[in-house]
Amino acid sequence: MSNLEFKSLDKFPELVAGMTTRHGGVSTGIFESNNMGIFASDPDDKAIVNMRAFIKALPVRLWKIAATRQVHGTHYAVLGTEPPESIFEPGFSVFPETDILMTNQPGVLLITFYGDCVPILVYDPEHHAVGLCHSGWKGTSLRAAAALVEGMTKEYGSRPAALHAVVMPAAGVCCYEVGFDVSSLFQAYSEQLVPFGGKHKIDLKGINAEILKSCGVPEEAIEISPLCTMCDDRFFSNRRDGGHTGRMAAFACLKSVGEVRA
Questions:
Q1: Tell me, what CATH number does 52's domain have?
Q2: Are 76 and 102 a contacting pair, CB within 8 Å?
Q3: What is the pLDDT of residue 10?
Q4: What string of pLDDT tens digits covers the 262 residues of the chain?
Q5: Coil, strand or helix at 110
Q6: Distance (Å, rounded) from C-alpha 187 to C-alpha 68?
Q7: In a domain, 179, yes or no
Q8: What's the structural domain count of the chain?
Q9: Pairing relation of β-strands 64-69 and 108-114?
Q10: Any coiled-coil ranges, and where (predicted)?
């Protein structure tokens, strides 16, 4: 199993975070091979097998796992010390109609799912809090990344100027073509819109970075992955594959003080 890690997070040994790729799992056919889409119709529950293997391989002690059933919105869930559920794995909770997760508790694994939408991680090293946000074009038009920053400010007292963010791989401006019905929602971001054959190609990763900056996150504290899920075969792509494909997972978890010192 191969997970992507991000250079800007190397200075935070207390944070385990990254994104899965499509390689290294047991799924076959259109879901080959490391499909994390546990809510899709992957035969023989192979996505669950992949998920269990992924969780087991993480270098952190877990007591709670939280995943989203995403609706392209701005609702967030806060993971604290409340007892977890056990959906298909002990300690595994699922949050319906939720696109944003956050926690300040060690050992709580946050998981969100992706085909081409933008995964956004925000980390607060001052308050040891972390959040994940799923933001497609709908979520981006609703400023879901801002909802994450504002939620962390409300829940943990996070200062935007102290935050660090990663905009992970997603459909890139090289490939992501949209019609006027979508591009018209982003006229304030003209630098992230490229005219193309009567339509536009859109830089959703760039727009989300601009949204983070508008919230007060320093530009130098935002890492933007150059990788495009549509033209890089390390990823599943909902658009490239006509909607019939697997999913990657973005993940984040805080280590305990003892684990960091070990």
A1: 3.60.140.10
A2: yes
A3: 98
A4: 689 999 999 999 999 999 999 999 999 999 999 999 999 888 889 999 999 999 999 999 999 999 999 999 999 999 999 888 887 788 999 999 999 999 999 999 999 999 999 999 999 999 999 999 999 999 999 999 999 999 999 999 999 999 999 999 999 999 999 999 999 999 999 999 999 999 999 999 999 999 999 999 999 999 999 999 999 999 999 999 998 999 999 999 999 988 998 6
A5: strand
A6: 30
A7: no
A8: 1
A9: parallel
A10: none
Nearest alpha-carbon partner for 87 in 65, 70, 61 = 65
Contact 87, 93 (CB under 8 A): yes
DSSP class per residue in 87-108: SSSTTEEEEET--EEEE-STTE
Amino acid letter, residue 115: G
pLDDT digits (tens, 9 = 90+) for 14-49: 999 999 999 999 999 999 999 999 998 888 899 999
Tokens 């900056």, located at residue: 213
In a domain, 99, yes or no: yes
Alpha helices in the chain, H assignment, sequence order: 46-57, 137-141, 144-156, 180-183, 204-214, 257-261
Neighbours of 229 (CB within 10 A): 31
The answer to whether residue 37 sits within a structural domain is yes
Separation between Cα atoms, residue 14 and residue 254, nearest integer Å: 6
Q: Residue 211 domain-assigned?
A: no
